[in-house]
Backbone:
């Protein structure tokens, strides 16, 4: 394959991957706690397989990552809605085990437990959090402490990770630790804000402009490939006429 054709094919594939990512970001621009995803080009370390007197060609790979920047806080007025300011995550109990999330749209279940929209139990220091349904008024402080009638009860578990980029996504808003995420630790740099939720950190205008640009780039790479293909066909036809 012609070098130029290879390059156009690679750039077309990469533009297609970026299109998929940007479309995913736009689709989740209104998802509470969602973090924008990125596609980064990383250079691989030398393999050491080449002779010492020859320079090994550079090799690159596309790596997906997340923009962990803080999303804006949106006030809801609901006592069970919680937002996180800082790098922390809530712990929730799912049928698949413990998962981590920043999606703080919680509510009280019929059993008076604090749960996610899917019904997963939000975990506190004493396990699943139960609030007496008769105690409609309660407050949650910035450390996650739950106060009923001015008495401190349980505390919502908020944890941080040394390398949150290695948290593996499960669905749109849940994560489980990857091998390099490190051990969870009690949050020291995160505040819990009651009556608010964290909005997605997707910049709708920027992502829309990126989508338009990527569509144009993808189309241009496809045209380059068509030009190379037409040129190759012409060469083959001319050789056929000579023979």
Residues:
């Amino acid at each position: 394959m012609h070098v130029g054709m290879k390059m156009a094919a690679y750039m077309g594939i990469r533009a297609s991957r970026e299109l998929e990512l940007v479309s995913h970001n736009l689709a989740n621009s209104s998802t509470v706690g969602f973090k924008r995803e990125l596609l980064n080009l990383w250079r691989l370390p030398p393999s050491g397989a080449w002779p010492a007197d020859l320079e090994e060609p550079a090799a690159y790979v596309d790596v997906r990552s997340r923009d962990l920047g803080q999303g804006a806080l949106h006030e809801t007025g609901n006592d069970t809605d919680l937002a996180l300011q800082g790098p922390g995550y809530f712990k929730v109990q799912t049928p698949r085990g413990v998962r981590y999330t920043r999606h703080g749209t919680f509510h009280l279940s019929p059993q008076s437990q604090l749960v996610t929209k899917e019904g997963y139990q939000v975990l506190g220091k004493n396990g699943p959090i139960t609030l007496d349904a008769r105690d409609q008024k309660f407050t949650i402080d910035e450390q996650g402490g739950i106060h009923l009638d001015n008495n401190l009860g349980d505390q919502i578990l908020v944890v941080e990770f040394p390398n949150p980029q290695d948290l593996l996504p499960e669905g749109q808003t849940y994560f489980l630790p990857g091998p390099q995420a490190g051990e969870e630790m009690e949050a020291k740099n995160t505040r819990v804000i009651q009556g608010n939720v964290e909005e997605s950190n997707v910049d709708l205008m920027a992502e829309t402009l990126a989508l338009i640009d990527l569509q144009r780039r993808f189309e241009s790479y496809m045209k380059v490939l068509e030009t190379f293909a037409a040129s190759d066909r012409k060469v083959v036809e001319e050789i056929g006429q000579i023979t």
